[in-house]
Amino acid sequence: MNKTRTAILALTALLLAPATSAQSLSDGGVKVGVLTDLSGVYSELSGQGSVKAAQMAAEDFMKANRAYAGKVSVIGVDHQNKADVAGNKAAEMIDRQNVDLLVDMPTSSAALAATEVARQKKTVAMVVTGATTALTNEKCNKYTFHYAYDNYMLANGTGTAVTKRGGSSWYIIYPNYAFGQDLNRQMVSAVQENGGKLAAPSDATPFPNTDFSSYLLKAQSVRPKIFGTMQAGNDLVNVVKQYNEFGLKKQGIGLGIGLLFETDVAALGQDAFSGAIATVPWFWNFDARSRQWAGRFEKAFGKKPTWAQAGVYSATLQYLSAVARAKTDNSDAVVKALEGYSFDDFFARNATIRPQDHRVLLDVQVVQVKGKSESKEAGDIYKRLNTIPAAKAFMPLSENKCRM
Amino acid sequence: MFNGLVNGAFYALLSLGLAVIFGMLRIVNFMHGALYMLGAFAAFALGQLLGLGFWPSLILAPLLVGLLGVVLERGLLSRLYGLEPSYNLLLTFGLTLLTQDLVKQVMLSRFAVSSAPYSPPEVLSGVVNLGFVVFPKYRLFVIALSLVVCLVTWFVIEKTRVGAIIRASTENPVVTRAFGINVSLWVTGVFAVGAALAGLAGVLAAPIYSVEPYMGAELIITTFAVVVIGGMGSILGSVVTGFAVGVLAAVGAAVYPPIANTLVFILMALVLLVRPSGLFGLPEGAR
């Protein structure tokens, strides 16, 4: 029934379509499904803001491509950061709501579950907020693209930058689950490759965890140059709060952070993080182009964008422009239009989509958190230390385990 | 090991409140974690809205939480006395979920954050060198204050006339009423004090942990285990076990991190096997 109706609709759309537009869209339009966390721990850094960003991308695309006016729509769905929910919602969005693109997907496990469903149903998925390198390695597939960042890029960027700036010895703690273990492994090898060493073997901490005092006391006795924390979200906020409480900075122990979001800095205040080094794909006041987009977003949403939200805009827009190039929303054709494509937008600089594993390569920024007194305006939290060019920022193909 | 005392202090304060409420009123108060969170949130909100510092908040926030306790007990819980205990368990559990989401909404809409910063007062920031360890001053203060509060509560309930009245009111309300004592007023008072203790723990926690809507949810489970190990309703038991579990978890985390979160439950299982009424609890018949 549904299929017949879709067919009839498609036929009518074809008949009604002006002769100038050459595109063939499966159901008369392109539907973008933002699969995200609308209620939980990542709702602030992605959530409604990601849905808003995708909507902005859809509107901008339709304005620039008259042939698609009124044909792109966006829906936002909550996956609650749970793998099973993410899988079910992805299937429902594709089967019942005719979604052509899944985008965002915070939480690695949820991203893996949703992309597996997307693979089975031959639907394009662009993971922006999920971090695991498995998406472009052992779990890679023809329809999945990994945008913005991953654990390798974080560890490679921060580990290299901090070690080269004199952080020659590290003591690292990481949350004891897939993301943390992976990030710790990557960070340790980045530190060692750059001539740094571990002052003590890394410690796994319970997850989630609120009290990190025993590890901070251990850091005091081990005396590394850098205390590295691979914790994320609320756990990270607690680690950093207690790092300051125990006065480690005053004792000459620096802070290296695996994964840092703008919202973490807001939650604790800039001064608590000041001096810490992290790697990010983007930040809002990076340059004039970024500021211009961020201003538009803030006007529409009421808050400054996080890099996750900016990434969702960019990923959505690049998918839509691939649809325009392919003149169809047929997944195989769109994948072909995306593979090997090079582009440059306000978010993804010098970007290329690597055909072998679908890793989206882009310039990434190593940043240092400014103290409150250094920032010139609200939300001015990062000082750019250096840019890692796209070709060097991500896992080289020689280490890649993807077989597509 | 020493730093375990800080967590121990929170466990003790919380389980003390739980034990008082359970021992006296037979209410399994699942909302205790939310009251703890409200204490921390109140301290943060008082600072943001009225510019109040840590010290006034240390008094005011528990009072506010205690007041909320009065409203809860009078308005809702008192209607369930005489029914099965599972009713008040469900009610307090539901209220917890409601409170957490409400606070989340308020934080996001009013303060634009879902997890808020809070610093210790100037006097107590910084560290002291204790010889064997360099330790934050504020944490020492938390340990000391909690010990004092626990001792005072224990003393009042076990050794004073006020305590005698409370124990009588809950042991045998009919007879106590015959002596001209307003039992339901005392019951409300006990609940309010238990709630205020949770609020106090929350204020004390605010400078150490991030203030966020779900901060009580993780703690409450451990706290329940502490109360069970110590002996349901035993004041002394909950205080001693609270500190002991804090230290034990810290040692566990240092030796074998994955076990830190489960250690308390292993301990609970072992204790229940040997002494079903808990370490300091009296067998049900001896009450």
Automatic annotation (TrEMBL), chain A:
Gene3D superfamilies: 3.40.50.2300. InterPro entries: BCAA_transport (IPR051010), Leu-bd (IPR028081), Peripla_BP_I (IPR028082). Residues 1-22 form the signal peptide. Keywords: Signal. The keyword Cytoplasm does not apply. Residues 30-371 form the Leucine-binding protein domain. Belongs to the leucine-binding protein family. This is Branched-chain amino acid ABC transporter periplasmic protein.
